[in-house]
Design the sequence.
């Protein structure tokens, strides 16, 4: 998945743990191969290659993920949009160079999940559009890996796919896992630790891919309405029952203005930690005690 | 950048509900068969309080019924899609039970108990196989129960499904049982009115709908219908008619409809859950019942939990019930069974449990008391056989990781 991944597992014996870990790893690799935009044989590449052509019938899992993405698009007022990946044609985070604003403006008409002809499980992708599941498939893979561990009979452990964490179950003695949240300006250190028995944690931040021009940071989380990077938060971490849901919420919050973003997360009653660009911490109400600072 | 006006209108609560429910339709969150094998053992001891001297025809307190039993439940996955479950119950009963009711010198009904101490044992085995798919499960159960004087065979089908992108799930159940009776000493010189053998069957249907109201609350409601036919009387009970005793004689059909409502609410800041259940039934014997139960489940510490609950029950009497009869009814239908009399009942229950790794231990106690004064409607004369009991239960369960 292009980022460090780790598994922490308990089981009856080494053999049993290894079998379960193999099953989890295989599940993550399966999803990476299925939804990679770098592999021409991936399901996603086939969908994109069929843009402007006849309707494609999607398999259950892909249809489920697309349906989820469409709901997330609607519930986020269009801020969560898997068709915004096309902006990569203007934004290159491997070089320190601002794109030509006209190039961005030219790409905007190709963005907007509401433009799909989506009658599950039949999808017709309009010409010029492109889908990218990269914004949520890693989170889904963390949950799928936990499901694979559970099928293999394990009950205690966690899956961490590059900072997206899904919990299988607490330590065997019932103690919660202490899950660290990355410091957005020092990604090797934790800015906070959350005790977790169950559920999942996902983070989005401006620290993964970015460049700085004239003292201003431009990150890879792009607003599908404007085509320009998120501003206001350095990172947002959300705890939710599923990592897939937590990931959509943290990404969407990154793209919102700070005040409405916090109001939106607070309405959900989920624990969250937002770090502003100036380094201030913002937590959900009543959460300071539950999620102690490191 | 963004569009603040648009963002202000976003509804976080609805977003979370929608996304959580759509996510659950994905394969990674599919209903899973038991991923591990488990064994559950229950011991229970049910003991009825003595029949009070004031209600007894002999003017002396009489010990009543006691049942003690063992239940063993084992569950195991069979491949990724199937689960198999076996339930074995072995119980032994002893003691005296209400035989018939007669008037005392003042015309007040008093209870005559069965003289000899009944001793019997029952064995019951049930096997269930279920198949789990992404949004539905299907199960079939077969059971057989055997006593000295009673055999029952049982078949059940269960289905559950959850439509995509929905906060609602549906459940359906159908069961059929075929029972055979050969009462002890039926047709003997001592008990000439007691039948030699008989049979009955019962068909039950149930449909329910479960809806997630919000992150903390789940509501379930449903309807059930059952129809029993055959010998529905109690061969061991008599009725007192015009100074003589006759066999308990009930209609040979009984249809019952019921409605139930269950609310589960999690109360996060005290780590507790509130369960509220209501059930109403009505049958063509003219019995109407209402049951209201509240239960509080509270986590005391990391591994300790307790449950405490109160249950209220009330029923009206069957059309053909009387404590005793002064004339034989024209249709010949009559019963003095306290279970068909008008009464109400209160139960209090408490349970403490401890979980550690795969082990789960629980100790529970229930106290139940039936009384005509607890009934919702007015009761002319209380049936003297109304029961009071306490039940002690012990559970040891283990899940193999």
Sequence:
């Amino acid at each position: 998945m292009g980022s460090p991944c780790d598994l922490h597992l308990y089981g009856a014996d080494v053999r049993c743990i290894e079998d379960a870990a193999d099953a989890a790893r295989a599940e993550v690799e399966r999803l990476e191969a299925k939804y990679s935009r770098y592999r021409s044989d991936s399901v996603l590449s086939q969908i994109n290659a069929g843009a402007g052509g006849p309707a494609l019938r999607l398999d259950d899992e892909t249809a489920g993920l697309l349906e989820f993405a469409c709901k997330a698009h609607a519930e986020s007022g269009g801020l969560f949009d898997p068709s915004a990946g096309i902006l990569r044609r203007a934004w290159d985070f491997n070089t320190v160079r601002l794109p030509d604003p006209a190039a961005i403006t030219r790409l905007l008409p190709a963005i907007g999940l509401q433009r799909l002809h989506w009658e599950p499980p039949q999808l017709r992708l309009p010409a010029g559009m492109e889908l990218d599941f990269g914004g949520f498939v890693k989170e889904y893979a963390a949950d799928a890996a936990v499901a694979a561990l559970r099928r293999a009979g394990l009950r205690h452990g966690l899956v961490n796919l590059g900072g997206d964490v899904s919990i299988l179950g607490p330590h065997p003695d019932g103690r919660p896992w202490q899950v660290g949240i990355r410091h957005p300006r020092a990604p090797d250190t934790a800015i906070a630790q959350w005790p977790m028995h169950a559920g999942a944690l996902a983070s989005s931040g401006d620290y993964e891919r970015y460049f700085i021009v004239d003292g201003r940071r431009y990150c890879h989380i792009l607003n599908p309405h404007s085509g320009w990077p998120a501003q206001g938060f350095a990172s947002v971490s959300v705890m939710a029952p599923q990592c897939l849901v937590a990931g959509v919420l943290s990404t969407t919050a990154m793209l919102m203005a700070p005040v409405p973003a916090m109001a939106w997360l607070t309405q959900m009653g989920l624990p969250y930690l937002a770090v502003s660009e100036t380094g201030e911490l913002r937590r959900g109400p009543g959460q300071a005690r539950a999620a102690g600072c490191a | 950048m963004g569009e603040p006006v648009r963002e202000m209108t976003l509804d976080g609560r609805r977003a979370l509900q929608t996304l959580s429910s759509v996510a659950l339709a994905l394969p990674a969150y599919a209903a899973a068969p038991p991923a591990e094998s488990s064994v559950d053992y229950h011991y229970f001891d049910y003991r009825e309080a003595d029949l009070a001297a004031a209600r007894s025809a002999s003017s002396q307190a009489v010990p009543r019924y006691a049942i003690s039993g063992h239940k063993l439940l084992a569950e195991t996955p069979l491949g990724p899609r199937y689960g198999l479950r076996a339930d074995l119950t072995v119980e032994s009963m002893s003691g005296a039970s209400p035989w018939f009711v007669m008037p005392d010198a003042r015309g007040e009904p008093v209870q005559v108990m069965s003289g000899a101490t009944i001793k019997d044992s029952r064995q019951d085995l049930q096997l269930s196989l279920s198949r789990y798919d992404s949004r539905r499960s299907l199960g079939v159960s077969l059971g057989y129960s055997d006593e000295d004087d009673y055999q029952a065979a049982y078949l059940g089908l269960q289905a559950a499904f959850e439509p995509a992108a929905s906060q609602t799930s549906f459940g359906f159940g159908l069961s059929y049982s075929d029972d055979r009776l050969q009462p002890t000493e039926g047709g003997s010189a001592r008990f000439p009115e007691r039948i030699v053998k008989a049979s009955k069957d019962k068909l039950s249907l149930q449909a329910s709908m479960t809806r997630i109201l919000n992150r903390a609350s789940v509501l379930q409601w449903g309807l059930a219908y059952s129809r029993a036919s055959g010998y529905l009387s109690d061969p061991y009970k008599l009725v007192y008619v015009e100074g003589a005793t006759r066999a308990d004689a009930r209609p040979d059909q009984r249809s019952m409809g019921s409605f139930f409502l269950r609310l589960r609410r999690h109360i996060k800041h005290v780590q507790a859950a509130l369960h509220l259940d209501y059930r109403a039934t009505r049958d063509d014997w003219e019995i109407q019942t209402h049951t209201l139960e509240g239960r509080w489940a509270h986590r005391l510490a990391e591994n300790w939990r307790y449950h405490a609950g109160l249950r209220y029950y009330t029923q009206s009497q069957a059309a053909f019930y009387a404590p005793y009869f002064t004339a034989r009814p024209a249709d010949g239908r009559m019963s003095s069974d306290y279970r068909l009399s008008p009464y109400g009942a209160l139960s209090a229950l408490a349970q403490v449990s401890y979980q550690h790794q795969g082990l789960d231990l629980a100790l529970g106690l229930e106290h139940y008391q039936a009384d005509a004064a607890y009934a919702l409607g007015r009761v002319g004369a209380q049936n003297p056989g109304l029961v009071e009991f306490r039940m002690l239960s012990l559970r040891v369960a283990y899940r193999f990781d």
Q: What stands out?
A: The CA atoms of residues 17 and 214 of chain B lie 7 Å apart. Confidence is low (pLDDT under 50) at residues 1-8 of chain B.
